[in-house]
Amino acid sequence: MNNPIKMWLSANHISYRQLATAMGQSPASISLKVNGQVGWNRNDLKFLKQRYGLSADFVLGFKTGDTTTGELPAIRKEACA
Q: Which InterPro entries did the record assign (predicted)?
């Protein structure tokens, strides 16, 4: 699995359904986006940055994590509140 957003969701125990609910979208829509069949739109990227601290580069697969350690970004504490 070399899809950064898919790996991040798995590492943070976030299901497509949970992300879909948080984003006000259907699980099917999120599945298509995570699997690269449909692109993320600007509002999606803005939400993911504001809620979880994920950069557009990370979500789009241009950056896979910390370039020095290779670690996935941690979920922001305020996103869990």
A: Cro/C1-type_HTH (IPR001387), Lambda_DNA-bd_dom_sf (IPR010982)
- For each of the domains in the chain, give its residue range(s) and CATH number, in order of start: 4-63 (1.10.260)
pTM: 0.76
* Collapsed DSSP state (helix, strand, coil) of residue 31: helix
Angle between helices 16-23 and 42-52 (to 10 degrees): 100
Task: Convert the pLDDT of each residue in 15-64 to its tens digit.
Answer: 999 999 999 999 999 999 999 999 999 999 999 999 999 999 999 988 76
